[in-house]
Amino acid sequence: MERPNAWKKYDASSLEALNNISCEYKKFLDNGKTERECVTETVEIAKANGYIDLSDAIKEGKKLAPGTKVYVNCMGKAVMLFHLGSAPLTEGINIVGSHIDSPRIDVKQNPFYENEDFAYADTHYYGGIKKYQWVARALALHGVVVKKDGTVVNVVIGENDDDPVVGISDLLIHLAGDQMGKKASDVISGEDLDIIMCGSPLEGAEKEPVKAMLLSILKEKYDIEEDDMISAEIEAVPAGKTRDFGLDRSMLLGYGHDDRVCAFASLKAILTMPEVPAYTCCCLMSDKEEVGSVGATGMRALYFENAMAELLALTDDYSELKLRRALANCRMLSCDVSAGYDPLFAGAFEKKNAALLGHGVCYNKFTGSRGKSGSNDANAEYIARLRKIMEDNSVTWQTAELGKVDVGGGGTIAYICALYGMEVIDSGVPVLSMHAPMEIINKADLYEAVKAYTAFMNDAAK
Ligand code: MN
Ligand code: MN
Description:
The protein has 462 residues and is of the alpha/beta class. The protein contains eleven helices and 22 strands. The protein has helices spanning 12-31, 35-48, 54-60, 177-180, 209-222, 257-271, 303-315, 320-328, 380-392, 414-418, 443-459, and strands at residues 52-53, 69-74, 78-83, 94-99, 104-115, 118-126, 139-146, 152-157, 195-198, 232-238, 243-245, 251-254, 281-286, 331-335, 338-339, 361-364, 368-369, 397-399, 409-410, 423-428, 430-431, 439-442.
Protein backbone atom coordinates (compact mmCIF):
# COMPACT_ATOMS: atom_id res chain seq x y z
CA MET A 1 0.00 0.00 0.00
CA GLU A 2 1.29 3.41 -0.94
CA ARG A 3 1.72 5.97 1.79
CA PRO A 4 2.52 9.36 0.26
CA ASN A 5 4.71 11.99 1.90
CA ALA A 6 2.37 14.81 2.95
CA TRP A 7 4.79 17.58 1.95
CA LYS A 8 4.48 16.67 -1.74
CA LYS A 9 0.85 17.80 -1.93
CA TYR A 10 1.14 21.22 -0.26
CA ASP A 11 0.56 24.40 -2.24
CA ALA A 12 1.52 27.89 -1.02
CA SER A 13 -1.66 28.37 1.00
CA SER A 14 -1.39 25.00 2.78
CA LEU A 15 2.24 25.76 3.59
CA GLU A 16 1.19 29.07 5.10
CA ALA A 17 -1.50 27.36 7.21
CA LEU A 18 1.00 24.69 8.26
CA ASN A 19 3.51 27.32 9.36
CA ASN A 20 0.90 29.30 11.29
CA ILE A 21 -0.22 26.18 13.15
CA SER A 22 3.41 25.27 13.93
CA CYS A 23 4.08 28.74 15.36
CA GLU A 24 0.97 28.59 17.53
CA TYR A 25 1.90 25.11 18.70
CA LYS A 26 5.41 26.22 19.67
CA LYS A 27 3.87 28.86 21.93
CA PHE A 28 1.40 26.36 23.41
CA LEU A 29 4.21 23.92 24.19
CA ASP A 30 6.52 26.56 25.65
CA ASN A 31 3.75 27.98 27.88
CA GLY A 32 2.61 24.52 29.00
CA LYS A 33 5.54 22.50 30.26
CA THR A 34 3.49 20.84 33.00
CA GLU A 35 -0.07 19.48 33.05
CA ARG A 36 -1.08 22.40 35.30
CA GLU A 37 0.35 24.99 32.91
CA CYS A 38 -1.41 23.28 29.98
CA VAL A 39 -4.75 23.46 31.79
CA THR A 40 -4.25 27.12 32.70
CA GLU A 41 -3.41 27.94 29.11
CA THR A 42 -6.26 25.88 27.64
CA VAL A 43 -8.84 27.42 30.01
CA GLU A 44 -7.61 30.91 29.09
CA ILE A 45 -7.93 30.13 25.37
CA ALA A 46 -11.36 28.52 25.92
CA LYS A 47 -12.68 31.53 27.86
CA ALA A 48 -11.45 33.88 25.14
CA ASN A 49 -13.47 31.76 22.69
CA GLY A 50 -16.73 31.98 24.62
CA TYR A 51 -16.52 28.87 26.81
CA ILE A 52 -18.15 29.04 30.25
CA ASP A 53 -17.30 27.04 33.38
CA LEU A 54 -19.66 24.06 33.73
CA SER A 55 -19.67 24.48 37.52
CA ASP A 56 -21.05 28.04 37.09
CA ALA A 57 -23.82 26.72 34.82
CA ILE A 58 -24.64 24.05 37.44
CA LYS A 59 -24.80 26.63 40.25
CA GLU A 60 -27.15 28.81 38.21
CA GLY A 61 -29.21 25.78 37.13
CA LYS A 62 -28.85 27.24 33.66
CA LYS A 63 -30.46 25.27 30.79
CA LEU A 64 -27.85 24.83 28.08
CA ALA A 65 -28.95 25.28 24.47
CA PRO A 66 -27.23 23.85 21.38
CA GLY A 67 -24.25 26.03 20.51
CA THR A 68 -23.29 26.55 24.18
CA LYS A 69 -19.62 26.01 24.95
CA VAL A 70 -18.57 24.79 28.40
CA TYR A 71 -15.31 23.72 29.99
CA VAL A 72 -14.55 21.54 33.00
CA ASN A 73 -11.36 22.13 34.97
CA CYS A 74 -10.43 18.98 36.95
CA MET A 75 -8.20 20.06 39.84
CA GLY A 76 -6.14 22.20 37.47
CA LYS A 77 -4.52 19.11 35.93
CA ALA A 78 -7.05 17.77 33.43
CA VAL A 79 -9.53 19.73 31.35
CA MET A 80 -12.48 19.10 29.02
CA LEU A 81 -14.14 21.40 26.49
CA PHE A 82 -17.66 20.62 25.26
CA HIS A 83 -19.31 22.42 22.34
CA LEU A 84 -22.98 21.43 22.40
CA GLY A 85 -24.51 20.32 19.10
CA SER A 86 -28.09 20.11 17.88
CA ALA A 87 -28.44 16.32 18.29
CA PRO A 88 -29.39 15.16 21.80
CA LEU A 89 -26.55 13.81 23.96
CA THR A 90 -28.18 10.37 23.97
CA GLU A 91 -27.06 10.06 20.32
CA GLY A 92 -23.47 10.26 21.56
CA ILE A 93 -20.79 12.89 21.11
CA ASN A 94 -17.54 13.16 19.13
CA ILE A 95 -14.59 13.04 21.52
CA VAL A 96 -10.94 13.74 20.81
CA GLY A 97 -9.04 12.75 23.96
CA SER A 98 -5.34 13.12 24.73
CA HIS A 99 -3.06 13.53 27.75
CA ILE A 100 -1.04 16.50 28.95
CA ASP A 101 1.31 14.92 31.47
CA SER A 102 4.81 14.13 30.21
CA PRO A 103 7.78 12.19 31.61
CA ARG A 104 9.84 14.36 33.94
CA ILE A 105 11.62 14.46 37.29
CA ASP A 106 9.51 15.36 40.35
CA VAL A 107 11.01 16.94 43.46
CA LYS A 108 10.40 14.89 46.63
CA GLN A 109 8.39 16.15 49.60
CA ASN A 110 11.45 16.37 51.90
CA PRO A 111 13.94 17.20 49.18
CA PHE A 112 16.75 19.41 50.36
CA TYR A 113 20.11 18.28 51.72
CA GLU A 114 23.69 19.45 51.72
CA ASN A 115 26.69 17.36 50.67
CA GLU A 116 30.25 18.74 50.36
CA ASP A 117 29.35 22.34 49.52
CA PHE A 118 26.45 21.49 47.23
CA ALA A 119 22.79 21.89 48.12
CA TYR A 120 20.68 19.25 46.40
CA ALA A 121 17.01 18.56 45.72
CA ASP A 122 16.14 14.87 45.97
CA THR A 123 13.73 13.61 43.29
CA HIS A 124 11.53 10.76 42.14
CA TYR A 125 11.17 10.46 38.36
CA TYR A 126 7.73 10.34 36.71
CA GLY A 127 6.89 8.09 33.76
CA GLY A 128 9.15 5.98 31.57
CA ILE A 129 12.54 7.62 31.11
CA LYS A 130 16.06 6.56 30.16
CA LYS A 131 17.60 8.07 33.28
CA TYR A 132 21.00 8.64 31.65
CA GLN A 133 19.36 11.12 29.22
CA TRP A 134 18.42 13.50 32.03
CA VAL A 135 21.89 14.23 33.45
CA ALA A 136 24.39 16.87 32.29
CA ARG A 137 21.70 19.12 30.82
CA ALA A 138 19.93 22.33 31.75
CA LEU A 139 16.75 21.75 33.73
CA ALA A 140 14.05 24.23 34.69
CA LEU A 141 11.78 23.96 37.74
CA HIS A 142 8.03 24.39 37.23
CA GLY A 143 5.21 23.91 39.68
CA VAL A 144 3.37 25.07 42.74
CA VAL A 145 4.07 25.38 46.45
CA VAL A 146 0.90 25.55 48.52
CA LYS A 147 1.26 27.13 51.95
CA LYS A 148 -0.74 26.13 55.01
CA ASP A 149 -3.02 29.14 54.61
CA GLY A 150 -3.91 27.96 51.10
CA THR A 151 -1.77 30.49 49.24
CA VAL A 152 -0.57 28.97 45.97
CA VAL A 153 2.92 30.09 44.93
CA ASN A 154 3.63 29.47 41.26
CA VAL A 155 7.24 28.66 40.48
CA VAL A 156 9.01 28.83 37.11
CA ILE A 157 12.80 28.97 37.28
CA GLY A 158 15.07 28.53 34.28
CA GLU A 159 13.05 29.62 31.26
CA ASN A 160 14.01 33.29 30.84
CA ASP A 161 17.39 33.96 29.24
CA ASP A 162 18.68 35.63 32.40
CA ASP A 163 17.24 32.96 34.76
CA PRO A 164 19.60 30.48 36.37
CA VAL A 165 19.06 26.83 35.44
CA VAL A 166 19.67 23.70 37.53
CA GLY A 167 20.67 20.17 36.62
CA ILE A 168 22.08 16.76 37.52
CA SER A 169 25.79 15.97 37.18
CA ASP A 170 27.33 12.97 35.38
CA LEU A 171 30.68 11.28 35.93
CA LEU A 172 33.54 12.53 33.73
CA ILE A 173 34.46 10.12 30.91
CA HIS A 174 38.07 10.00 32.19
CA LEU A 175 36.95 8.12 35.31
CA ALA A 176 33.94 6.31 33.87
CA GLY A 177 35.48 2.94 33.02
CA ASP A 178 33.24 1.09 35.48
CA GLN A 179 30.17 3.15 34.64
CA MET A 180 30.54 2.65 30.86
CA GLY A 181 30.57 -1.10 31.36
CA LYS A 182 27.17 -1.08 33.08
CA LYS A 183 23.80 -1.79 31.49
CA ALA A 184 22.20 1.46 30.27
CA SER A 185 19.41 1.02 32.83
CA ASP A 186 22.00 0.98 35.65
CA VAL A 187 24.28 3.80 34.48
CA ILE A 188 22.36 6.33 36.58
CA SER A 189 20.22 5.08 39.45
CA GLY A 190 16.84 6.64 40.17
CA GLU A 191 17.91 7.63 43.66
CA ASP A 192 20.94 9.46 42.24
CA LEU A 193 18.88 11.78 40.03
CA ASP A 194 19.49 14.61 42.49
CA ILE A 195 19.41 18.19 41.31
CA ILE A 196 22.18 20.63 42.19
CA MET A 197 20.41 23.70 43.56
CA CYS A 198 23.21 25.86 45.07
CA GLY A 199 27.00 25.88 45.37
CA SER A 200 27.97 28.63 47.84
CA PRO A 201 27.56 29.10 51.61
CA LEU A 202 25.26 31.65 53.22
CA GLU A 203 27.28 34.19 55.16
CA GLY A 204 27.04 33.65 58.89
CA ALA A 205 25.33 30.28 58.68
CA GLU A 206 27.16 27.65 60.68
CA LYS A 207 25.16 24.49 60.07
CA GLU A 208 24.70 23.36 56.44
CA PRO A 209 25.49 26.83 55.04
CA VAL A 210 24.87 25.91 51.35
CA LYS A 211 21.44 24.48 52.12
CA ALA A 212 20.88 27.63 54.22
CA MET A 213 21.73 29.64 51.10
CA LEU A 214 19.06 27.72 49.13
CA LEU A 215 16.44 28.20 51.86
CA SER A 216 17.21 31.90 52.17
CA ILE A 217 16.72 32.37 48.40
CA LEU A 218 13.41 30.48 48.50
CA LYS A 219 12.31 32.61 51.46
CA GLU A 220 13.35 35.86 49.83
CA LYS A 221 12.02 35.19 46.31
CA TYR A 222 8.89 33.14 47.08
CA ASP A 223 8.28 33.54 50.82
CA ILE A 224 8.34 29.76 51.28
CA GLU A 225 9.83 27.71 54.12
CA GLU A 226 11.44 24.28 53.88
CA ASP A 227 8.29 22.68 55.37
CA ASP A 228 6.18 24.14 52.56
CA MET A 229 7.80 21.63 50.18
CA ILE A 230 5.59 19.00 51.84
CA SER A 231 2.64 20.50 49.98
CA ALA A 232 4.42 21.31 46.74
CA GLU A 233 4.45 19.84 43.24
CA ILE A 234 7.69 20.89 41.56
CA GLU A 235 8.66 19.26 38.27
CA ALA A 236 12.15 19.43 36.74
CA VAL A 237 11.84 19.62 32.95
CA PRO A 238 14.31 20.41 30.17
CA ALA A 239 14.96 24.18 30.12
CA GLY A 240 14.44 26.12 26.94
CA LYS A 241 12.03 26.59 24.10
CA THR A 242 10.76 24.41 21.29
CA ARG A 243 12.98 24.87 18.22
CA ASP A 244 12.60 24.38 14.49
CA PHE A 245 14.56 21.23 13.68
CA GLY A 246 16.40 20.52 10.45
CA LEU A 247 17.86 23.08 8.05
CA ASP A 248 14.58 23.05 6.13
CA ARG A 249 12.69 23.77 9.38
CA SER A 250 10.40 20.83 8.59
CA MET A 251 10.43 19.43 12.13
CA LEU A 252 10.12 20.59 15.74
CA LEU A 253 12.43 19.66 18.62
CA GLY A 254 10.77 20.15 21.98
CA TYR A 255 9.89 18.81 25.40
CA GLY A 256 6.53 17.07 25.84
CA HIS A 257 5.26 16.48 22.29
CA ASP A 258 3.99 13.29 24.00
CA ASP A 259 1.21 14.13 24.22
CA ARG A 260 0.71 17.87 24.05
CA VAL A 261 0.93 17.77 20.27
CA CYS A 262 -2.34 15.79 20.15
CA ALA A 263 -3.85 17.97 22.91
CA PHE A 264 -3.03 21.08 20.89
CA ALA A 265 -4.39 19.59 17.64
CA SER A 266 -7.67 18.70 19.37
CA LEU A 267 -7.93 22.19 20.87
CA LYS A 268 -7.37 23.77 17.44
CA ALA A 269 -10.03 21.46 16.01
CA ILE A 270 -12.78 22.23 18.53
CA LEU A 271 -12.19 25.98 18.21
CA THR A 272 -13.05 25.81 14.49
CA MET A 273 -16.42 24.08 14.95
CA PRO A 274 -19.47 25.82 13.44
CA GLU A 275 -21.61 27.90 15.83
CA VAL A 276 -23.94 24.93 16.37
CA PRO A 277 -22.25 21.63 15.49
CA ALA A 278 -24.47 18.75 14.37
CA TYR A 279 -23.27 16.63 17.31
CA THR A 280 -21.67 17.73 20.55
CA CYS A 281 -17.87 17.81 20.32
CA CYS A 282 -15.46 17.26 23.17
CA CYS A 283 -11.77 18.05 23.50
CA LEU A 284 -10.50 16.08 26.50
CA MET A 285 -7.02 16.49 28.00
CA SER A 286 -6.29 13.95 30.73
CA ASP A 287 -3.49 13.67 33.28
CA LYS A 288 -1.44 10.74 34.67
CA GLU A 289 -1.44 8.74 31.41
CA GLU A 290 2.30 8.20 31.77
CA VAL A 291 1.76 6.42 35.10
CA GLY A 292 -1.30 4.36 34.19
CA SER A 293 -4.14 6.95 34.06
CA VAL A 294 -4.65 6.59 37.80
CA GLY A 295 -5.73 9.14 40.43
CA ALA A 296 -8.49 11.73 40.44
CA THR A 297 -7.19 13.46 37.29
CA GLY A 298 -6.27 10.31 35.36
CA MET A 299 -8.63 8.94 32.72
CA ARG A 300 -9.69 6.08 35.01
CA ALA A 301 -11.40 8.64 37.28
CA LEU A 302 -15.02 9.46 36.51
CA TYR A 303 -14.80 13.13 35.53
CA PHE A 304 -15.83 12.51 31.93
CA GLU A 305 -18.84 10.43 32.93
CA ASN A 306 -19.78 12.97 35.62
CA ALA A 307 -19.57 15.84 33.15
CA MET A 308 -21.81 13.95 30.71
CA ALA A 309 -24.33 13.41 33.54
CA GLU A 310 -24.30 17.13 34.39
CA LEU A 311 -24.69 18.07 30.71
CA LEU A 312 -27.64 15.69 30.38
CA ALA A 313 -29.27 17.31 33.40
CA LEU A 314 -28.77 20.77 31.92
CA THR A 315 -29.97 19.91 28.40
CA ASP A 316 -32.58 17.18 28.92
CA ASP A 317 -34.33 15.24 31.68
CA TYR A 318 -31.56 13.30 33.35
CA SER A 319 -31.90 9.57 33.80
CA GLU A 320 -29.33 6.86 34.40
CA LEU A 321 -30.51 5.07 31.27
CA LYS A 322 -30.08 8.19 29.14
CA LEU A 323 -26.57 8.62 30.51
CA ARG A 324 -25.65 5.00 29.68
CA ARG A 325 -27.00 5.51 26.15
CA ALA A 326 -25.16 8.78 25.70
CA LEU A 327 -21.86 7.19 26.76
CA ALA A 328 -22.26 4.04 24.68
CA ASN A 329 -23.15 6.01 21.54
CA CYS A 330 -20.01 8.20 21.58
CA ARG A 331 -17.34 8.17 18.91
CA MET A 332 -13.81 8.71 20.14
CA LEU A 333 -10.29 9.28 18.90
CA SER A 334 -7.88 8.37 21.68
CA CYS A 335 -5.09 10.64 20.57
CA ASP A 336 -1.55 9.88 21.60
CA VAL A 337 1.78 10.04 19.85
CA SER A 338 3.05 7.00 17.98
CA ALA A 339 6.59 5.67 17.60
CA GLY A 340 8.01 7.26 14.46
CA TYR A 341 10.07 4.95 12.23
CA ASP A 342 13.74 5.63 12.94
CA PRO A 343 16.13 4.41 10.18
CA LEU A 344 18.99 4.35 12.71
CA PHE A 345 17.05 1.82 14.80
CA ALA A 346 15.32 0.06 11.92
CA GLY A 347 15.54 -3.29 13.70
CA ALA A 348 12.91 -2.23 16.26
CA PHE A 349 10.27 -1.60 13.58
CA GLU A 350 8.34 -3.46 10.92
CA LYS A 351 8.53 -0.75 8.32
CA LYS A 352 5.32 -1.21 6.35
CA ASN A 353 3.33 -1.00 9.59
CA ALA A 354 5.40 1.73 11.24
CA ALA A 355 4.48 5.42 11.48
CA LEU A 356 6.59 7.46 9.05
CA LEU A 357 7.42 11.07 9.94
CA GLY A 358 5.93 13.43 7.38
CA HIS A 359 3.38 10.90 6.15
CA GLY A 360 0.50 12.30 8.14
CA VAL A 361 -1.59 11.55 11.20
CA CYS A 362 -1.59 7.87 12.15
CA TYR A 363 -4.27 5.45 13.30
CA ASN A 364 -3.33 2.52 15.50
CA LYS A 365 -6.00 -0.18 15.36
CA PHE A 366 -4.43 -1.63 18.49
CA THR A 367 -1.62 -0.89 20.95
CA GLY A 368 -0.53 -3.13 23.82
CA SER A 369 2.28 -5.67 23.84
CA ARG A 370 2.99 -9.43 23.53
CA GLY A 371 -0.06 -10.52 21.56
CA LYS A 372 -2.00 -7.21 21.80
CA SER A 373 -2.21 -7.60 25.59
CA GLY A 374 -3.86 -4.59 27.20
CA SER A 375 -4.97 -3.12 23.89
CA ASN A 376 -8.20 -1.62 22.65
CA ASP A 377 -8.62 -3.29 19.29
CA ALA A 378 -10.78 -0.89 17.26
CA ASN A 379 -13.63 -2.29 15.18
CA ALA A 380 -13.11 -2.72 11.44
CA GLU A 381 -16.52 -1.10 10.85
CA TYR A 382 -15.41 2.03 12.74
CA ILE A 383 -12.09 2.19 10.88
CA ALA A 384 -13.93 1.95 7.57
CA ARG A 385 -15.99 5.02 8.52
CA LEU A 386 -12.87 6.91 9.52
CA ARG A 387 -11.18 6.05 6.21
CA LYS A 388 -14.07 7.70 4.42
CA ILE A 389 -13.99 10.80 6.64
CA MET A 390 -10.22 11.18 6.14
CA GLU A 391 -10.49 10.79 2.38
CA ASP A 392 -13.50 13.11 2.07
CA ASN A 393 -11.50 15.78 3.88
CA SER A 394 -8.19 15.24 2.02
CA VAL A 395 -6.31 14.28 5.18
CA THR A 396 -2.94 12.55 4.73
CA TRP A 397 -3.02 9.64 7.14
CA GLN A 398 -1.39 6.29 7.74
CA THR A 399 -1.88 3.21 9.87
CA ALA A 400 0.76 2.20 12.37
CA GLU A 401 1.67 -0.10 15.20
CA LEU A 402 4.18 0.45 17.96
CA GLY A 403 7.29 -1.41 16.80
CA LYS A 404 7.94 -4.99 15.80
CA VAL A 405 5.86 -7.77 17.35
CA ASP A 406 7.33 -8.78 20.73
CA VAL A 407 9.92 -5.97 20.80
CA GLY A 408 7.95 -3.91 23.33
CA GLY A 409 4.73 -1.97 23.40
CA GLY A 410 2.67 0.63 25.20
CA GLY A 411 -0.83 1.70 26.12
CA THR A 412 -3.05 4.78 25.99
CA ILE A 413 -6.39 5.92 27.41
CA ALA A 414 -8.36 4.11 24.65
CA TYR A 415 -9.26 0.96 26.60
CA ILE A 416 -10.68 3.02 29.49
CA CYS A 417 -13.22 4.92 27.38
CA ALA A 418 -14.01 1.74 25.47
CA LEU A 419 -15.47 0.36 28.74
CA TYR A 420 -18.62 2.39 28.06
CA GLY A 421 -19.12 0.53 24.79
CA MET A 422 -18.27 3.51 22.62
CA GLU A 423 -16.26 3.29 19.39
CA VAL A 424 -12.61 4.16 20.11
CA ILE A 425 -9.44 4.10 18.06
CA ASP A 426 -5.94 5.36 18.77
CA SER A 427 -4.71 8.17 16.60
CA GLY A 428 -1.72 10.48 16.83
CA VAL A 429 1.43 12.11 15.56
CA PRO A 430 4.63 10.08 15.00
CA VAL A 431 7.52 11.05 17.29
CA LEU A 432 11.25 10.34 17.20
CA SER A 433 13.10 9.89 20.52
CA MET A 434 9.81 9.52 22.41
CA HIS A 435 10.16 10.16 26.19
CA ALA A 436 13.64 11.67 25.70
CA PRO A 437 14.04 15.17 27.20
CA MET A 438 13.72 16.58 23.69
CA GLU A 439 11.44 14.80 21.22
CA ILE A 440 11.10 15.33 17.46
CA ILE A 441 7.95 15.62 15.34
CA ASN A 442 7.35 16.61 11.71
CA LYS A 443 5.29 19.78 11.18
CA ALA A 444 3.29 18.11 8.39
CA ASP A 445 2.00 15.47 10.83
CA LEU A 446 0.86 18.17 13.27
CA TYR A 447 -0.93 19.96 10.42
CA GLU A 448 -2.61 16.75 9.23
CA ALA A 449 -3.63 15.93 12.82
CA VAL A 450 -5.42 19.28 13.13
CA LYS A 451 -7.21 18.57 9.83
CA ALA A 452 -8.07 15.02 10.89
CA TYR A 453 -9.47 15.97 14.31
CA THR A 454 -11.49 18.82 12.78
CA ALA A 455 -12.97 16.44 10.20
CA PHE A 456 -13.68 13.87 12.92
CA MET A 457 -15.52 16.35 15.15
CA ASN A 458 -17.62 17.46 12.18
CA ASP A 459 -18.36 14.10 10.60
CA ALA A 460 -17.87 11.19 13.02
CA ALA A 461 -21.56 10.59 13.84
CA LYS A 462 -23.15 7.44 12.46
MN1 MN B 1 1.48 9.43 25.32
MN1 MN C 1 4.23 8.54 26.73
